Amino acid sequence: MYVYANLSDVIGLESDESGKPVGLVSKNVFFYGTLFFLTLTNGIFLLLIRLYNRVRSLNEKYKQALLIWLNGLMGTLNFFFALALIFISAFNSLEKLDLENFGITVLASGGLVITWILGFSYVLMQRGK
Q1: Which DSSP symbol is given to 23?
Q2: Contact 49, 70 (CB under 8 A)
Q3: Which end of the chain has the smaller Cβ count within 10 Å, N or C?
Q4: 69 and 123 in contact (C-beta within 8 Å)?
C-alpha cells in the first residue's frame, strides 16, 4: 500500500538509453498484477509447507530442516519483492533520485535468494543422516 500511494497514474517498468520510461502500465494494473503475483507465490509456499507437514514417511529431522528452509525461502523472496517494489516506486518518483546504489541493493537481495536456493543442498544432505 505504501508503494501504491506513491505511484503516479502511469508506471514505467523499464527505461530506454536516455532514461525515459518505455514499459508503461496503469497504476491499477500494476497494483492488481502485483497483488495476484504475491498472493499466488505465497499461496504456493504455504501449500507446500502444509503438504510437507502431512507427509509421514519423511525422517522428522529432515522434514523440520525442509520446513525451515521453505519458510526462510518464502521470507527471503518476500524481502526481495518488497525491495523491488520500493525500487519501482523510486524509479517512478517525480524527484531526481540516485538509483544506482539502490539498484545494487536489489541485485544483492536477488543474490541472497540464489544463495538461499543453493542452501537447499545442505537440506538434502540432512536427508541421509
Answers
A1: S
A2: yes
A3: N
A4: yes
Higher per-residue confidence, 90 vs 73 = 73
Instruction: Quote the cell numbers at residue 102.
Output: 539502490
Note the pTM of the prediction, 2 decimals. Answer: 0.76
Whole-number pLDDT of residue 121: 81
Output the pLDDT for position 97: 66
User: How many domains would you assign to the chain?
Assistant: 1
The rounded distance, in Å, linking the Cα atoms of 127 and 63 is 8
The whole-number pLDDT of residue 129 equals: 60
Instruction: Determine how β-strand 24-26 pairs with β-strand 10-12.
Output: antiparallel
Please classify residue 106 by burial: count the beta carbons closer than 10 Å to its beta carbon, then call 0-12 exposed, 13-18 middle and 19+ buried: middle
- Residue 119's domain comprises 2-128
Q: Percent of the chain, pLDDT > 70?
A: 89
Q: Which three cell numbers stand for residue 44?
A: 504456493
